[in-house]
Amino acid sequence: MKIIAILSTVFTIIKLSISNCYWSENCHYKYFSSKTPYEFVRGDIRDSFVKIKGCYAISVWSLVRHGKRNPGIDYVQNMLDATTMKYTIKFNHENGKGSMCAQDVENLYNWEADPKLFQNVHQIADEGYQEIFGIGYRIRKAFKDLLKSLDDKDYKLRSAYGAWIENGVKAFVEGFGNTSMIIEKSNADYDIMAPYEACSFYVKEVKNNMKTYLEENKYKNTSEYLAVKKRIQQRTGMDFTLTNKNITGLYDLCRYTSSGLNNTLSPWCAIFTKEDIQALEYVGDLRHFFRNSYGNPINEIFGRIPLADLLERFKTAKNGKGKKLTVYFTHATMMDMVYSALGLFKDEIPLNGTFRNPERKWRSSKTATFAANLMVTLNSL
């Protein structure tokens, strides 16, 4: 009986010791706000395409956010600073500090950065190229009758200005199976895919206005967010107070070095609990809500501009003179603005920095992921 009791105790201890280990968990929280890999959340238009009996598609219009890209220069330094913490975490663990599991610490210590991540700043990543490639491939398969033979006059492909977006269009035509397709040149001054960039009022009064980020900053002072910082401090065993910049750097390492294509999460994610990631996701939701969406009425106005193009394209197609395929490539900001103009994902109680509603509709991890897209079809009898 004593032997049985001892064995039972041993098995219980083993079970408890691995229950909070990231490496052995079977179900991770994979929603990283606007830096969520497309493969973690996407559907498949080949399966979800609504086929109406007796009808056939005559025109497809789509707005596509660029695929996964490398971080911008403003974030790279924070991330580089954060990478050095893996040595401190290992040292702390070996000296009885922190609460991370041995395998998680080992995986983190053995992690090496892809040189492209920090060298090719703000450029499309290999995974981002494949994300857009896949969209091109699937859209042709979904509308095989409509898109099987396209003359140059039958389609329109254009991106907003920016090399990481423009290179994504190349991925789209490659996935579509026709690399000879004509890609219109982007416009650095103004385009319907990013009209807000040419508006000095938006840039000054919204994007660069600290009032836009009041609720985000308010949330970072709530007991929920402060508890996140405390948990990370305890798990890593750091003997200095982690700043919001430290937390952001660690979080960015987690989400930028996770892969949806390989369905793998970064060793850096082991630093966080599910509750931590959910709180950090909400920080992103607040930023997108107030800078790009319902938090400011001007955003809805900008969202109407691409939708006006959609209406005109379909009117022309209805008369038998339009494009079979129109695809614009843009930013998450534009996606958010279009959702606002359509009244999508709108909560009865607007997002705020005082309370995080876990049942909210506005979720940047679902609406503004890398390669997020909106597709509309015009059908005829």
UniProtKB/TrEMBL annotation:
One of its GO terms (cellular component) is membrane. Keywords: Hydrolase, Membrane, Signal. The keyword Membrane applies. The keyword Signal applies. It comes from the Eukaryota. Transmembrane segments: none annotated. It is found in: Membrane. It holds the Pfam family His_Phos_2. It is an enzyme of class 3 (hydrolase). GO terms for molecular function: acid phosphatase activity; bisphosphoglycerate 3-phosphatase activity; inositol phosphate phosphatase activity. Residues 1-19 form the signal peptide. It catalyses: 1D-myo-inositol 1,2,4,5,6-pentakisphosphate + H2O = 1D-myo-inositol 1,2,5,6-tetrakisphosphate + phosphate; 1D-myo-inositol 1,2,5,6-tetrakisphosphate + H2O = 1D-myo-inositol 1,2,6-trisphosphate + phosphate; (2R)-2,3-bisphosphoglycerate + H2O = (2R)-2-phosphoglycerate + phosphate; 1D-myo-inositol hexakisphosphate + H2O = 1D-myo-inositol 1,2,4,5,6-pentakisphosphate + phosphate. Its EC number is 3.1.3.62, 3.1.3.80. Belongs to the histidine acid phosphatase family. MINPP1 subfamily. This is Multiple inositol polyphosphate phosphatase 1.
